[in-house]
Amino acid sequence: MHPLTTRRSALRALGSAALLAASGTVPSATAAVADERTSRPSVALDWYDLTAATIAAAGAATQITNNRTWAISWLAAARATREVPPGVDRRDFQDAALASAVHDALLALVPSRTQELDAALRTTLDRVPDGLARSKGVAAGARQARLVLASREGDGLDPASVNAPFTVPPAAPGVWQPTPPAYAPAAQYGNRLARPFLLDGPDQYRLPAPPALDSARYRADLAEVRAYGAVDSTVRTALQTETATFWLGSSLTLYTEPLRVALARSPRFVPARAALVALFHIALVDTQIATSDTKYAYLRWRPVTAIRAGTIDPDPDWTPLHVTPAHPDYPSGHNTYSGAAETILTGLTGPRTAPFELTSPTAPGVTRTYTAWSQLSQDNEDARVYSGIHTRSADVAGLALGKRVAGHALRNAERLFGVS
């Protein structure tokens, strides 16, 4: 499907009157700031920040589980705010409904934050005039939180299921083996056994096989990562090292601010803002499920194994700049995440935005400025090679897979949001 067609389909599904126009025009940064300074604070931004803080303080150890928490909470909010009962103030109802939905879902999923969540709900509701709009909004949010939580029960995205045991196959050329220095067991195998939100199955967009070990593409991949990804590389520049370090951490953490930028700069329609956050994380859950499906379908070894134990100029002492994660090379999970994030943000807010600054917990003191969602993807593609933990082919394939899964989410959003 043509990208513009996909985008229009998503806009129809989420309510085109409540999202940015299909032209892709993005409000200026000045307009966004003015928007945030209106008389009543933005409930969507308040609860976005609270969701991020809740997960940062007491979230799960597995990234996909935390994406699931975001998805459930904000899907409930999007559904609760969609239809306003007759005879009540629209904004009062929607503010109360969003806060109630996110509060109740987070309370069920992260109960250790009960005190903070309850206090935040009181603060929000204190700003909404007492009356039918508020009471009906609270009831709608609570109802949708219960329904969405029930619909996702037993979906296999809890930490124990995500890291289900995996039996490592015997060592052979190209086959993944645990990697130094920890030689840890395989992680995230259980993702491919989980139930997606919108995919028909984990293997719906399974990638073709990675480059053959005797191909020119594979030789080029290995030569690049050997040269640029070594801890003692003599060709990697300081800027390239910074890129690798900046994008080393959790994709969920690194994309929290870009999504907030998009949220703050979108129109102040509450259902649209809730739907943007929900669909972003729904697509990312499905993307991580699809990523693990392809990873464990092909079991491609990591560069450190290929360079140390392979037949192409083996070097038993070669060490990557950064420690290799404990799962197969193909495709890169950071890049599937980035490709999906780019596709959702582009599909719902346009490809470009006013400049915004981004920091990273793995690169203290470094600030980068971006003006297009695709720039984040390009940095992710390069970063994993410069870190020495992925081949270029794994990165490129990862971007492609993430974009396909997110495109599927955009085309099928009405299945979750119930818009005909």
TrEMBL record:
The keyword Signal applies. InterPro entries: PAP2/HPO_sf, TAT_signal, V-haloperoxidase. SUPFAM superfamilies: Acid phosphatase/Vanadium-dependent haloperoxidase. It comes from the Bacteria. Residues 1-31 form the signal peptide. Gene3D superfamilies: 1.10.606.20. Keywords: Signal. This is Uncharacterized protein.
